[in-house]
Structures are given as structure tokens and as C-alpha cells.
Automatic annotation (TrEMBL):
Lineage of origin: Eukaryota, Metazoa, Cnidaria, Hydrozoa, Hydroidolina
UniProt signal peptide: 1-17
Entry keyword set: Signal
The protein, known as: Cnidarian restricted protein
Domain of life: Eukaryota
Amino acid sequence: MMRSYIAICFLFGLTSAFIFGKKDPVYPDWDALSITFGKFTSLPQTEDEAVSSGEWTPYGGCGCKNATKPYQGKRYRGPGGTNNLLFGPHKNVVGIQIVLPDNFNIAKNWKGAHVKEGNTFVMTTYFTDPDLICSGKRIAPKGYVGDNLYIVMNNGPVKIPLKESDIGATKWTKGKCFYGMGQHYWYDVSKDMDCNDFARLGFCCIMVEI
């Protein structure tokens, strides 16, 4: 059986364990969620887990009830204020936000992907189609994190390939393989691009055979 790990590299890693083919050959049996930079820290997968932990607090209200909110779902802020989790109507996790200080250097072509909130910038990743989150329809089965991966970029959410074999002729460019992190893919980059256009955003895929 082949186990796949997909991570989004902002300044530190968000890792999500995907096992394809266990129950469904198309969608991942996605049952783990953690963040890492040096060590792995598990994250709550339900709103109830977030509340009972005592470490996550409601922050910014619910995007489903307020069209002016630049995110979908009910938001909680985590320890240290560096991550927000988003939960859907069924209280399952539907996304995560990375919180950066507003003095962080943002590439000029990526400013639309960074939402200004007070003295911070926020970047959002969804674990299912964001257009369906507030509909009340549960996409991922109970106990599973999600069924897809979307990163909010300049022109809205972009669907990310779940398998390395699906990258094909997309805008993801193959980079180096980093020890302990896996093969990196960088979005819309080239060797002759302006350094000011380079975004600190990558897509990593580790394929581990079990």
C-alpha cells in the first residue's frame, strides 16, 4: 500500500496524512492533521476538540453568517496566535489559516492572497471545496479531515493536486527534495523570474511506501 503525505509550506509546514485506496481510490482517507517545524503538533479535528483543549478560542466570528468575512466557517485562534482553524456547520475542521506579522515581506504579485487583519496578514487553506462549506452539506465522512485541498491565492481558491502524479502541466514547478520534508513543488516560478515576484509558498509531496 502506498501512503502519501501532502504539506503546504508557508514559513513552517502544515502536514496532512493521506492514505489513498484504503476505502476509496479517488478520495483520501485523511485522518490526521498537524503542523510542524522541527516537531509535529497535532491539531483539533472538530470544534468540540478545540474547545475542550482550552487552547483554542473563538476569533473573528463565523464567515458563514457574514458575507464580509474573508473566509468560510467558524474561526478559532490557536496557541501563540500563529494559526487559526476553521470549522463548518457540522463542527468538523474545514480549513486552516497561517497568521503572519504585517511587516512580513509579501511578494507584489501575491498580495491578494494575504488578507490584512489588524497588524497581521492571514493566508487560508481549505480541506474541501470552500463554496460548499456553508451549505451545511458534510463533504468528508465523520472522522476524516477533508476530501480536497484549496489554497486561497490572488484570484481566489486554487485546487491543489492530491497526488504527485496529478501535477502534470499545472503551474507547480518541481524543486528540490528536502530531508525530512520531501519533494517540493513551487507555484508559478521560473529561473529568470523577478526575485520580488517570488512567493514563499510551496507544495510538498512525500511518497512513502509501506
